[in-house]
Design brief:
Blueprint: H1 26-34, H2 41-52, H3 58-71
Helix pairs in contact: 1-3
């Protein structure tokens, strides 16, 4: 018998993309960056707009900056 995954949480938070103006889910952004893939111009624009609109929580901002640091920034992403 496998353990129950527990109740589903509908509250907006770290893995919820409903709080941001990103054109793609935040976890997808992190997976993309941690996988070493550069952001396209449209992705970088979407991330910067969401960040400047303060759509990211402080935890999301930290995760984003850490993932960008891990991957290494490109000029386009700046």
């Amino acid at each position: 018998m496998s353990p129950s995954p527990g109740p589903e949480c509908d509250a907006p938070g770290f893995f919820s993309d409903s709080m941001t103006s990103l054109s793609f889910p935040f976890p997808t952004l992190l997976e993309h960056l941690i996988g070493g893939q550069d952001l396209s111009e449209s992705q970088a624009k979407s991330v910067m707009e969401a960040w400047l609109q303060e759509d990211f929580t402080p935890v999301q901002t930290g995760a984003l900056l850490a993932a960008l640091r891990m991957k290494g920034l490109t000029g386009l992403e700046l």
